[in-house]
Design goal:
The protein is mainly β. It is 0% helix and 42% strand. Strands 6-7-11-10 form a 4-stranded antiparallel beta sheet, with no helix packed on it. A 4-stranded antiparallel beta sheet has the order 9-8-12-13, with no helix packed on it. A 3-stranded antiparallel beta sheet has the order 1-3-2, with no helix packed on it. The chain starts with 10 loop residues before the first strand and ends with a strand.
Length: 177
Amino acid sequence: LHRGPRTAYPYHIKSEAENQPSLGHCGYSHNHGGYENQLLPRDRGAAVYQNTTYTAQGGITVSTQPATVRLAGLDSYYITDETSSVPISWELSNFGDESTQGERAFELKITRAGEEVVSRTSPGAFANGVWRGSVNLPVRTVPMTKEDPNSFWDVYTVTVRAMAGQDNTWSSDSFLL
Protein backbone atom coordinates (compact mmCIF):
# COMPACT_ATOMS: atom_id res chain seq x y z
CA LEU A 1 0.00 0.00 0.00
CA HIS A 2 1.40 3.40 -0.92
CA ARG A 3 0.08 6.89 -0.29
CA GLY A 4 1.69 10.27 -0.73
CA PRO A 5 5.31 10.73 -1.77
CA ARG A 6 7.25 7.55 -2.42
CA THR A 7 8.85 6.29 0.78
CA ALA A 8 10.99 3.18 0.93
CA TYR A 9 10.61 0.93 3.95
CA PRO A 10 13.53 -1.51 4.07
CA TYR A 11 12.52 -5.01 5.10
CA HIS A 12 14.34 -8.16 5.96
CA ILE A 13 13.28 -11.77 6.34
CA LYS A 14 13.15 -13.31 9.80
CA SER A 15 13.05 -17.07 9.95
CA GLU A 16 10.69 -18.75 12.40
CA ALA A 17 12.63 -22.02 12.12
CA GLU A 18 15.22 -22.66 14.80
CA ASN A 19 18.88 -21.99 13.96
CA GLN A 20 18.11 -20.64 10.49
CA PRO A 21 20.09 -17.60 9.27
CA SER A 22 18.48 -14.45 7.91
CA LEU A 23 17.37 -15.04 4.34
CA GLY A 24 18.15 -11.62 2.97
CA HIS A 25 16.00 -8.85 1.58
CA CYS A 26 13.12 -10.60 -0.08
CA GLY A 27 10.15 -8.35 0.52
CA TYR A 28 7.48 -11.04 0.92
CA SER A 29 6.15 -13.42 3.52
CA HIS A 30 6.59 -16.95 2.22
CA ASN A 31 8.14 -20.34 2.75
CA HIS A 32 11.85 -20.89 2.01
CA GLY A 33 12.57 -24.59 1.63
CA GLY A 34 10.13 -25.97 4.16
CA TYR A 35 10.22 -23.40 6.95
CA GLU A 36 7.96 -20.38 7.25
CA ASN A 37 9.34 -16.84 7.14
CA GLN A 38 7.76 -13.53 7.90
CA LEU A 39 8.35 -10.06 6.55
CA LEU A 40 9.32 -7.49 9.15
CA PRO A 41 10.49 -3.88 8.92
CA ARG A 42 14.11 -3.56 10.04
CA ASP A 43 13.06 -1.63 13.14
CA ARG A 44 10.50 -4.39 13.84
CA GLY A 45 7.72 -1.79 13.86
CA ALA A 46 5.00 -1.20 11.32
CA ALA A 47 5.26 1.35 8.51
CA VAL A 48 3.82 4.62 9.78
CA TYR A 49 2.93 7.53 7.53
CA GLN A 50 1.13 10.66 8.77
CA ASN A 51 0.12 8.97 12.04
CA THR A 52 -1.42 6.01 10.18
CA THR A 53 0.02 2.52 10.50
CA TYR A 54 0.20 0.56 7.25
CA THR A 55 0.76 -3.15 6.88
CA ALA A 56 0.96 -5.24 3.77
CA GLN A 57 0.60 -8.91 3.05
CA GLY A 58 1.42 -10.81 -0.11
CA GLY A 59 2.00 -14.27 -1.33
CA ILE A 60 4.31 -15.99 -3.74
CA THR A 61 3.48 -19.05 -5.77
CA VAL A 62 6.55 -20.94 -6.86
CA SER A 63 6.19 -23.39 -9.71
CA THR A 64 8.56 -25.17 -12.02
CA GLN A 65 9.26 -24.04 -15.53
CA PRO A 66 7.34 -25.99 -18.15
CA ALA A 67 9.09 -28.88 -19.84
CA THR A 68 10.74 -28.13 -23.17
CA VAL A 69 11.30 -30.82 -25.78
CA ARG A 70 13.11 -30.49 -29.12
CA LEU A 71 13.77 -32.96 -31.91
CA ALA A 72 17.27 -32.92 -33.35
CA GLY A 73 17.41 -31.83 -36.98
CA LEU A 74 18.20 -34.29 -39.75
CA ASP A 75 20.67 -33.84 -42.59
CA SER A 76 17.81 -34.47 -45.01
CA TYR A 77 14.07 -34.97 -44.64
CA TYR A 78 13.92 -36.84 -47.96
CA ILE A 79 15.13 -40.43 -48.07
CA THR A 80 15.23 -43.19 -50.67
CA ASP A 81 14.81 -46.95 -50.51
CA GLU A 82 18.57 -47.19 -50.11
CA THR A 83 18.14 -45.96 -46.52
CA SER A 84 17.31 -48.77 -44.10
CA SER A 85 16.87 -46.66 -40.95
CA VAL A 86 16.93 -43.04 -39.78
CA PRO A 87 18.19 -42.04 -36.30
CA ILE A 88 15.66 -39.79 -34.53
CA SER A 89 16.89 -38.03 -31.38
CA TRP A 90 15.50 -35.49 -28.93
CA GLU A 91 16.49 -33.30 -26.00
CA LEU A 92 14.26 -32.58 -23.03
CA SER A 93 14.80 -29.89 -20.37
CA ASN A 94 12.90 -28.76 -17.25
CA PHE A 95 11.72 -32.35 -16.79
CA GLY A 96 13.38 -33.05 -13.44
CA ASP A 97 15.97 -35.73 -12.82
CA GLU A 98 15.84 -39.46 -12.03
CA SER A 99 14.65 -38.76 -8.46
CA THR A 100 11.83 -36.41 -9.49
CA GLN A 101 8.43 -37.67 -8.46
CA GLY A 102 5.06 -36.39 -9.54
CA GLU A 103 3.23 -35.40 -12.64
CA ARG A 104 5.26 -35.75 -15.82
CA ALA A 105 4.79 -37.49 -19.12
CA PHE A 106 6.76 -38.11 -22.30
CA GLU A 107 5.59 -39.46 -25.66
CA LEU A 108 7.37 -40.11 -28.94
CA LYS A 109 5.23 -41.35 -31.82
CA ILE A 110 6.19 -42.03 -35.40
CA THR A 111 3.43 -42.85 -37.85
CA ARG A 112 3.34 -43.83 -41.52
CA ALA A 113 0.05 -43.16 -43.32
CA GLY A 114 -1.72 -42.91 -39.95
CA GLU A 115 -0.33 -46.26 -38.74
CA GLU A 116 1.91 -46.20 -35.66
CA VAL A 117 5.42 -47.43 -36.48
CA VAL A 118 7.36 -46.44 -33.33
CA SER A 119 6.12 -45.41 -29.88
CA ARG A 120 8.17 -44.57 -26.76
CA THR A 121 7.25 -43.29 -23.29
CA SER A 122 10.77 -43.26 -21.82
CA PRO A 123 12.47 -39.85 -22.05
CA GLY A 124 15.92 -41.42 -22.48
CA ALA A 125 18.94 -40.83 -20.25
CA PHE A 126 19.54 -37.91 -17.86
CA ALA A 127 22.95 -36.18 -17.91
CA ASN A 128 24.15 -32.63 -17.28
CA GLY A 129 20.66 -31.34 -16.48
CA VAL A 130 18.88 -32.57 -19.63
CA TRP A 131 17.29 -35.76 -20.89
CA ARG A 132 18.46 -37.12 -24.24
CA GLY A 133 17.08 -40.03 -26.16
CA SER A 134 17.11 -41.56 -29.59
CA VAL A 135 15.47 -44.29 -31.61
CA ASN A 136 16.16 -45.77 -35.04
CA LEU A 137 13.21 -45.50 -37.40
CA PRO A 138 13.13 -48.55 -39.69
CA VAL A 139 12.43 -47.46 -43.26
CA ARG A 140 10.60 -49.91 -45.46
CA THR A 141 11.10 -50.33 -49.19
CA VAL A 142 8.20 -48.61 -50.89
CA PRO A 143 6.32 -50.91 -53.27
CA MET A 144 5.25 -49.17 -56.48
CA THR A 145 2.10 -50.19 -58.31
CA LYS A 146 0.50 -48.97 -61.50
CA GLU A 147 -2.90 -48.91 -59.80
CA ASP A 148 -1.85 -46.32 -57.21
CA PRO A 149 0.07 -43.35 -58.65
CA ASN A 150 0.98 -42.20 -55.08
CA SER A 151 2.48 -45.55 -54.11
CA PHE A 152 6.04 -44.48 -54.80
CA TRP A 153 6.44 -42.66 -51.47
CA ASP A 154 5.79 -42.98 -47.75
CA VAL A 155 5.31 -40.06 -45.39
CA TYR A 156 6.41 -40.45 -41.77
CA THR A 157 5.20 -38.04 -39.07
CA VAL A 158 7.58 -37.77 -36.13
CA THR A 159 6.03 -36.19 -33.02
CA VAL A 160 7.49 -35.81 -29.54
CA ARG A 161 5.82 -34.16 -26.56
CA ALA A 162 6.46 -33.74 -22.83
CA MET A 163 4.76 -32.30 -19.76
CA ALA A 164 6.14 -31.83 -16.25
CA GLY A 165 5.09 -30.41 -12.92
CA GLN A 166 1.77 -28.75 -12.26
CA ASP A 167 1.76 -27.16 -15.69
CA ASN A 168 -0.67 -29.25 -17.75
CA THR A 169 0.61 -27.77 -21.01
CA TRP A 170 2.39 -30.09 -23.41
CA SER A 171 5.60 -28.98 -25.08
CA SER A 172 5.84 -30.56 -28.51
CA ASP A 173 7.96 -30.73 -31.64
CA SER A 174 7.40 -32.58 -34.91
CA PHE A 175 8.46 -32.96 -38.50
CA LEU A 176 7.52 -34.88 -41.64
CA LEU A 177 9.95 -37.30 -43.24
